[in-house]
Amino acid sequence: MITDIKELAAQVGRALQEKSLLLATAESCTGGGVSQAITEIAGSTGWFDCGFVTYSNASKTELLDVSAAMMAQFGSVSEEVAAAMAQGALANSNAHVAVSTTGIAGPTGAVPGKPVGTVCFGWATGDTVHTERLVFAGDRAAVREQTVVHALQGLLRFIN
Hints:
Elements: H1 2-18, E1 23-27, H2 33-39, E2 48-53, H3 57-64, H4 68-74, H5 79-91, E3 97-103, E4 118-125, E5 128-135, H6 140-159
Helix pairs in contact: 1-6
């Protein structure tokens, strides 16, 4: 799977470079995994601006301007928070495009309606934001890996 992630990251890099776009990431459950995949590619300084690892709700508020009231209302694992995280990454960086991940990688953390493996994604540019909510199977490592892959696949669709 590592080869697949590296190839996906390289494809994202080429797509961003072709459009002269800079990327920012806002990650929670992946702990910087999307940023790591992207910066694994030589030359990523040409299309990657920065990454925010906002694991706690407080850091989501402080670094990405995600409203505490929104997290209280919808939960930190929600499409609303994923959208706000992506928009916050754009607002607090030099990037043109952002991707966000927030989820429950497990083995604990499940809440009613949000089992382990629930992940919400956000992709943003300008005023356009796309979100998704998926539930992945597997252990913590598998959920995180699937999340990185889906975030990169979503970026490719979003910027093309």
